[in-house]
Amino acid sequence: MADPAICTKVHDAARSWRDRARSRRGHDALPEQTVAELKHFDFMGVWQAPEVNWTTICEISRLAAQACPSTGWVLVNCIGHALIADRFPDALAKRVFSDNPAPVIATAMAARDTNIINHDDGGLTISGRFVNSSGIDHADWVLLKLPAGPNGQPRYVPCETSRISIERTWKTSGLMASGTHSFSVELSVPKTEVADWEPCLKGNRPSDEVDGNYLRSMPMIAYLGTSLIAPILGCAEALFREHERLIVRRTRDVGLNSAPELTALGESAMELTTAQLLYRDLLDWLHDKGSQARSISAEEVKICRAKAATLVRLCGTAAKRLQDTCGMAVLSEDAPAQGYWCDLQVMSAHSDVRYGISLQDYGQICFDAAKTTITATGSNQHDCA
Questions:
Q1: At what angle do helices 69-85 and 229-254 cross, to 10 degrees?
Q2: Closest Cα to residue 18, out of 62, 70, 68?
Q3: Is residue 144 left, alpha or beta, with left meaning phi > 0 and alpha meaning psi from -120 to 50?
Q4: Cβ(337)–Cβ(261) below 8 Å
Q5: Which tens digits make up the pLDDT trace of 186-240?
Q6: Which residues contact 71 (CB under 8 A, 6 or more apart)?
Q7: Of 24, 92, 311, 384, which residue is the least packed, with the fewest Cβ within 10 Å?
Q8: 4-19: per-residue pLDDT in tens?
Q9: What is the 3 state secondary structure string of the chain?
């Protein structure tokens, strides 16, 4: 399903991304050379090609994250943000993409104390801080995510990054190079530069208006809501390979009884394989929906999120078991495992892949279906035959 030529380009470029990531551990932004390569090979703008599908988008992020989780994270998020901006009203979208057909676009949420004044003419005055903006150092635009306005709709306001003041607030133990900083801004925004949230994520448009590219015509909420599985899985796969290497070296050099290590390795390998199967299942399903221009229900969105959250949980438990098994070996300077482990923890904490809420929603779907079946058959007894 994924475009092999594009994936090969990412795979080849990722060798350099891996080396830079390991030599710059602790830096709070991606290396400029890595960003230049993302732009040079048009990885940021790959979504615009009619032949590119959602599987390709996720695969290039997964491959990038195997080398540098922060690069994979920024890549898939910025592509998602561009897909949102592409759904803006025509004049506003044209403004975002006029100078550069493949701009780097970040997003940020308004902090609680940010002052947002709604004017009678539909315009806004914005003053204050915005937070959690991955890749903001390299972005051309940032989409300001605002709470619901007078019409009850959350809103987006695109802002050129030349108008913001970045605050270097991203101080975490993992995913440091994503540069998910805060910034301050003061803007007076006319009504024509405000986009409602729902048309951007839930709206659709005729595919012939966008050269048959379903990424630009289908409602995006199910796609963007599960996009983070790609860099998370890529990071978990790279971490698993590091754990394998450490276990082999530890067993060989120290002469430990290998049975516990082999059991842990087998359990984690099976969990990671299950996560990979969920990944393929989810991407294939989303691609089929898009390529056939079939609608995605609210219930199906919840099922997608439950699958994504379960995938992330499987990656986490597989990694945690081997992290414990490897012991102090993961902390040595020549072992990148600790870096991948920290990156995985930060990515997995994102609200889009929150396990409890997603599985509660899925449990409600299962309960409702079971209740309907039992009511229809007139039985509340299990068939034990």
A1: 170
A2: 68
A3: beta
A4: no
A5: 999 999 999 999 888 887 777 777 777 899 889 899 999 899 999 999 999 999 9
A6: 14, 17, 21, 30, 34, 38, 64, 65, 177
A7: 384
A8: 999 999 999 999 999 9
A9: CCCHHHHHHHHHHHHHHHHHHHHCCCCCCCCHHHHHHHHHCCCCCHHHCCCCCHHHHHHHHHHHHHHCHHHHHHHHHHHHHHHHHCCCCHHHHHHHHCCCCCCCEEEEEECCCCEEEECCCCCEEEEEEEEEECCHHHCCEEEEEECCCCCCCCEEEEEEHHHCEEECCCCCCCCHHHCCEEEEEEEEECHHHCEEHHHHHCCCCCHHHHCCCHHHCCCCHHHHCCCCHHHHHHHHHHHHHHHHHHHHHHHHHHCCCCHHHHHHHHHHHHHHHHHHHHHHHHHHHHHHHHHCCCCCCHHHHHHHHHHHHHHHHHHHHHHHHHHHHHHHHHHCCCCCHHHHHHHHHHHHCCHHHCHHHHHHHHHHHHHHHHHHHHHHHCCCCCCCC
- The letter for the amino acid at 200 is C
Q: Which residue has the tokens 């450490």?
A: 246
* Residue 252, both tokens: 């060989």
Q: Which pair of structure tokens corresponds to residue 209?
A: 């208006």
Measured in residues, the chain has a length of 385
